[in-house]
Design a protein that fits this description.
The radius of gyration is 21 Å and the shape is globular. The chain has a single domain, classed as MFS general substrate transporter like domains (Growth Hormone, Chain: A, Up-down Bundle). It is mainly α. The chain is built from 17 helices and no strands. It starts with about 25 loop residues before the first helix and ends with a helix.
Length: about 475
């Protein structure tokens, strides 16, 4: 059986010298506060999805421009998560988490007041700092909690990512129908402030590592440039043309910068991203599973609303309103949460690698239902719900696997890197779905089926990586 992270002894030779971290008197309240911070980040990441057409019409932007409202957040988050996670390792995870939440709240209010698309996009870029709440919350949980509470944290905190994203699709549709898209950000800012208050009151402060590290500015620049180049090419490939000089040039430049990042980081004493950890097979396999966990749900987030809201007379649409289609997706959000909660028990019973395999298989089964019966509303609801259960397990088990294979002193940066991998998977879903649906515009039923079969394929890749993890664990 693969040992759980909860059974591991932390490697004392890799932990910086620091004053002892005080144990909280109310560990349940600490877990609630950290979960709330991650929930709000996930909520604001996808809350705008149902409102994209409305925002575009209000600000006079075309479909390509409004698509950047989601893409800008993902791009920024991919860059900022490992950087801010590294700052947490250096200066204290609680302190950096509160700073990130403060910046998150301010940028959310700016988005609510945005007079045009440019200002809104800038605000969404700054909002991307919230992606770091996930690695920071996990790092704090590992430091402050122990035993059953720590086991619960590895179910609750990752489960908030899927739960927040699922609820956002429901709440976003209702708010847009009842009020206006600006209220999405006003309400979001209030929730962010409340989550910050919970962290201040419930999460005890701790000392930063006594041994400070130098800021790895070359690594930060190369990481930002490389990720932006690759993700920009992926997100804009359908608009620029997948083989156009611009797409190929931007993507190639991004890849070259990432290669340069690897060459620089292996020679840096305190890298922002310790790429040397990828020499170990398990972390490579975990990253492949994480890509699938990020890609599969976003295929559905992008494809299901237009499928459900298309008129029934088209022969494939479900003819639902914005609010009704959002409510139809709600059961999946609940099962994402439940999947995260049951993950510690699955890992304890069969091992973390086997739990990853269960996640991929369940996601694949749900995706098969979507692919075979995309025009049947009940089948879509059931298939997406099953997929959500597998996705919830995936969010939690990927986090546990990464923490299990990373040094305690680099928890924030390691989980931040895992957030980058997941974000890359999510960011790739939107252009892929758009390209397939555009190519099959004359037969949309076939197009939606094709999109969901791609989710099946991604789940199969994740399953293969998980099988390799299980086999590797048994050999060790």
């Amino acid at each position: 059986m693969t040992p759980s992270i909860l059974d591991e002894e932390l490697p004392t030779d890799s932990v910086p010298v620091a004053r002892p971290q005080p144990r909280p008197r109310r560990p349940g309240a600490v877990l609630f506060a950290l979960s709330a911070a991650v929930f709000v980040f996930s909520l604001m990441q996808t809350l705008v999805v149902p409102a994209l057409p409305t925002v575009g019409a209000d600000l006079g932007a075309n479909a390509q421009g409004t698509g950047w409202i989601l893409t800008a957040f993902l791009l920024s988050g991919a860059v900022l998560a490992p950087v801010v996670g590294n700052l947490g390792d250096r200066f204290g995870h609680r302190r950096i988490l509160l700073i990130a939440l403060a910046v998150f709240a301010a940028s959310t209010l700016a988005a609510a007041a945005a007079p045009n698309l440019t200002v809104l996009l800038v605000a969404r870029v700054v909002q991307g700092i919230s992606t770091a709440t996930f690695p920071l919350a996990l790092a704090l949980a590992r430091t402050l909690l122990s035993g059953p509470r720590l086991a619960a944290a590895f179910g609750w905190i990752p489960g908030m990512i899927g739960l927040g994203a699922g609820i956002a699709l429901v709440v976003g549709g209702v708010i847009v129908d009842a009020l206006s898209w600006r209220w999405l950000f006003i309400i979001g800012a209030v929730l962010i402030a409340l989550s910050a208050l919970l962290v201040i009151v419930q999460v005890p402060g701790g000392a930063a590592p006594a041994v400070a590290k130098r800021t790895d500015w070359p690594g930060i620049v190369l990481l930002a440039g490389g990720l932006v180049g690759v993700l920009l090419a992926v997100s804009q490939g359908s608009a620029w043309g997948w083989v156009s000089p611009l797409t190929l040039g931007v993507g190639t430049l991004g890849l070259l910068l990432l290669v340069a990042l690897v060459l620089v980081e292996v020679r840096t004493p305190s890298p922002v991203v310790d790429v040397r950890t990828f020499r170990h097979g398990p972390l490579v396999l975990i990253s492949i599973l994480t890509l699938a966990v990020g890609f599969v749900p976003y295929v559905c987030y992008i494809a299901l609303p237009p499928l459900m809201q298309a008129p029934a007379g088209t022969g494939y649409g479900h003819g639902l309103s914005v609010t009704a289609s959002a409510l139809a997706m709600f059961p999946s959000a609940v099962l994402v949460f439940l999947g995260g909660r049951m993950t510690p028990a699955l890992a304890a019973r069969w091992g973390a690698g086997a739990a990853g395999l269960i996640s991929a298989i369940v996601m694949g089964v749900g995706a098969v239902g979507l692919a075979v019966w995309p025009t049947v509303p009940l089948a879509v609801i059931i298939g997406f719900s099953i997929l959500g259960l597998g996705n919830g397990i995936g969010y939690a088990i990927c986090a546990q696997l990464v923490m299990q294979h990373s040094p305690a002193a680099e928890t924030g940066a390691a989980t931040g890197l895992n957030s980058v991998v997941r974000t890359i998977g999510s960011a790739a879903a939107a252009p892929v779905v758009a390209a397939v649906l555009a190519a099959t515009a004359t037969d949309s039923a076939t197009g939606y089926g094709t999109v969901f079969w791609m989710a099946v394929g991604a789940s199969a890749v994740g399953a293969a990586a998980s099988i390799a993890l299980v086999v590797g664990a048994r050999r060790r």
